[in-house]
Amino acid sequence: QVQLVESGGGLVQAGGSLRLSCEASGRTFSNYPMGWFRQAPGKEREFVAAVKWSGGSIDYPDSMKGRFTISRDNAKNTLYLQMNSLKPEDTAVYYCAAGDYRYYSDTSLKQPANYNYWGQGTQVTVSS
Hints:
Blueprint: E1 3-7, E2 10-13, E3 18-25, E4 34-39, E5 46-51, E6 68-73, E7 78-83, E8 92-98, E9 117-118, E10 122-127
Parallel strand pairs: 2-10
Antiparallel strand pairs: 1-3, 3-7, 4-5, 4-8, 6-7, 8-9, 8-10
């Protein structure tokens, strides 16, 4: 059974940093794409970052560029999201996701529908 478990969320002041982790089990994800999404109350789920099966990341949304960095440790079957210079508008539940298909385009990797497995989410709250 495939499981994704996020951790590392919490309450932080604006300008602070957090590192989210997503530990995968039930399958080796090193050869498949993985991503981070977030959802704020009353809003749709939003793409944050993704790493392709080959290991390279795709473009970040402009609002996160230069502040967020995705990485993976294949030996630990773990995905990370380093978030720096956090802003109140980054407040959301952050979800880890994994896909089954290796060859999605960068555009496709930004769509939640193209991921088959999801974690339960971890809350990130940024105070002003």
